[in-house]
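Collaboration report, partner site 2.

Our partner group contributed sequences for two proteins of shared interest, and the home lab folded both. The records are reproduced in the order in which they were received, starting with the first partner submission.
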Amino acid sequence: MWGWDKTRELGNELAWQGMTNALRMFSPGQLNPFGQNPLEPLLYDLLDTDALCHPTAPKLFIAATDVESGQAKIFSNVEITVPVLLASCCIPMMFPAVNIGGRHYWDGGYSCNPALTPLLAPKPDVLVLIRAQPRIRKGVPNSTADIVHRLHEIAFQAPLDAELSDLPKSVRLHDISADAALAAHPLTSKMNTERDFLKRLFEAGREAAAQPVAV
């Protein structure tokens, strides 16, 4: 007899399969002709630009991918706006490219995920990397939804792997892996927005980040 977890898993699979089919048939302009993004009103409510621009604010770097050049564009504290945040997570098959200053941008993960160059500029001794997706997934995906998901994961981690291969030997890397926390979840769990599931992910992240930094 199936439990609630299996039923939810099936629901996520069906939802993602339906969305995948729709994305193959229609462009973002057809699916979303007004270019609406449900994150936009939330970000306008939450983004505190005064805090970001305060002299004591931690340095924050947000990446987006220039659609025409394919190059990464890095936005720092004073440049970060709601359109910048929307551009940084703009999946091209789901949302129209975001126009910023006459240039159009997609998700920054296609060009850098995240960009290490500005973090290495101050010549740090230690670099702490917190991964948000597993690098390794055992088994070969079979369904269309799982194949698309895994392709996105590989595409998004490739730029980071390239930068890490050129990491200066003087910098010690502390890599907080997401493999243990996330690899057991199906790829379609990204469709799961239930509070309890998100709380478990939050707690797993806190637990991983609490591990001492190797010196």
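Second partner submission, folded after the first:
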Amino acid sequence: MKCPDWTFLSNYGHVLVCLAENPGVRLRDIADRVGITERTAQRLITQLDEAGILTRVKLGRRNSYYIDTSAHLRHPIEEHCTVGELLKLVLSPARVRRLEALKADLDEQGTV
């Protein structure tokens, strides 16, 4: 089956899904999975960070990423939905539970 030239999610959405699946994922792996350059992956993560959608947490030499699942989507058509609601649609139930547990742990620790 031919791969379509378009997808329902933007590269921002794809990057968020990668980070939700593995908060410690390397930029190189995000870039490979999404089909973008490492520089583009870095730029998208920086913009998501600046928008308050995610926060970088330095763990040793690597970054881990906390996604604010309560943040609302930005376009007026879907601004009534949260990032968490979007991720629940595309992640497996096990990954959603893991994401929620990580959020609860970070909130409890006051890390973010």
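Feedback sent to the partner group on the second submission included the following. The chain has a mean pLDDT of 91. The two ends are 43 Å apart (CA to CA).
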